[in-house]
Amino acid sequence: MTGLRSQAIRESRPLFELRHSFVIRHSSFVILIMPTDSSLIEVDRLVRKFGDRAVLNDISFNVHRGDTLVIMGGSGCGKSTLLRHMIGSMKPTAGTVKLFGEELTGMKERELIHIRLRFGMLFQSGALLASLTVGENVALPLLQHTDKSDDEIEEIVEQKLQMVGLTGFEDLRPDEISGGMKKRVGLARALALDPELLFSDEPTSGLDPIMTAVIDELTLKLTRGKGMTAVVVSHDMTSAFRIATRMIMLGHGGIVAQGTPDEIRASSNPEVQQFINGEPDGPIPLNLSQEEHEHHQHVKPRPFVTARHRFHRKTP
Ligand SMILES: Nc1ncnc2c1ncn2[C@@H]1O[C@H](COP(=O)(O)OP(=O)(O)OP(=O)(O)O)[C@@H](O)[C@H]1O
Ligand SMILES: [Mg+2]
Fold first, then answer.
1. How much distance in Å is there from the Cα of 80 to the middle of ligand 1?
2. How far apart are the CA of 61 and the centre of ligand 2, in A?
3. Are residues 266 and 134 both part of a single domain?
4. Which residue's alpha carbon is at the smallest distance from atom 9 of ligand 1?
5. Cβ contacts of residue 225 below 8 Å, gap of 6+?
6. pLDDT tens across 172-206, in order?
């Protein structure tokens, strides 16, 4: 069912294809040429520094409509940071990010809202609101951005929770469900507005292999079946190769490798082979690089002693 508000939002969407297409008039008929470049996301020479350290250094790639891009790479290499730039919640030190053909860099919060309505985001932590129930968390985007009735919202929430295998958990609070369940509630919430684009930060971490397969099936149904575009960060290679149409491996601040799943599988890069085969020995360092180590040495220490002091005071 479509509320007036969401209908209005849909109608106000920039017609990307139309704006970038052109028309050839030929005697009595008109030929509409559709664009060859159907990029939904364009990341161009993106640099992100924290202090002196460039976590992302000159990253460029495009994501095309209908693709499922899996971003992989070692812990701390900048995957979540890259996603945050792709949704406009972090600003680059240099370079640009375009979503749906619109430049995010420099956009004000108010301008970002209409773009945010077009994509869903599952955060690595789940990012559920602790004071709301599972059902209320999933309902949140519908309450904020549509004028649907309570009955309609209830129906959608039920449907989204069913998609992620959580029927009947509506009334529990986040602290009453497991880590893997929180992830699935986060996914149900990210899908609440039926987005055309989904960003998902490790959607299957903490899930057992069967539930991982269920979530992968859901991703495939929405992408291959319904044309949704997805950008998924994943460490889980079984899941990654199941859902990806394209893959990018990050490392050393840059793109170590990118291509189709077959190209990545066949890569002669030893770092890629070590990563996709999960081997402990290889070129990927286990410890922080000297540069990373130095960066963390310079981070202002947190008031640990204060916390310990408080803890001791409270202990009888
Ligand atoms: N707001 C911030 N301020 C300072 N440093 C940050 C900030 N956000 C991220 N970093 C640093 O950027 C690096 C990359 O972090 P990020 O969370 O993107 O890694 P990741 O690849 O998602 O790791 P994981 O696989 O463990 O989730 C880390 O060294 C982190 O400390
Ligand atoms: Mg991360």
1. 7
2. 19
3. yes
4. 81
5. none
6. 999 999 888 998 999 999 999 999 999 999 999 88
Domain limits at 23?
2-33
Verify whether ligand 1 is closer than 6 Å to residue 76 (CB atom). yes
Cβ–ligand 1 distance for 89 under 6 Å, the answer no
The values of phi and psi at residue 12, to 5°, are: -85, 0
| Whether this model's pTM surpasses 0.85 | no
22 plus 76 within the same structural domain = no
Structural domain includes residue 38: no
- As for how many domains the chain has, the answer is 2
In a domain, 148, yes or no: yes
User: 134 C-alpha vs ligand 1 centroid, how far in Å?
Assistant: 28
Closest ligand (CA of 72): 1
- The 10s digit of each residue's pLDDT in 290-310 is 665 565 555 555 555 555 555
pLDDT in tens, 124-142: 887 899 999 999 999 999 9
CA of 255 to the centre of ligand 1 (A): 16
Query: Whose CA is closest to atom 8 on ligand 1?
Result: 81
Determine the residue type at 217. E
Ligand 1 center to 27 CA (angstroms)? 58
Q: What is the pLDDT of residues 7-53, one digit of tens each?
A: 333 333 332 333 333 334 444 444 444 444 589 999 999 999 999 89
Q: Are residues 174 and 236 in the same domain?
A: yes
Report which of 189, 156, 158 is spatially closest to residue 171, judged by C-alpha positions: 158
Rounded CA separation 203/191 (Å) = 13
Same domain, 127 and 268: yes
Instruction: Indicate whether 241 belongs to any domain.
Output: yes
Tens of pLDDT, residues 96-106? 999 999 999 88
Q: Which of 56, 72, 81, 86 to mutate to test the pocket of ligand 1 (most atoms within 8 A of CB)?
A: 81
Tokens 């704006």 belong to 19
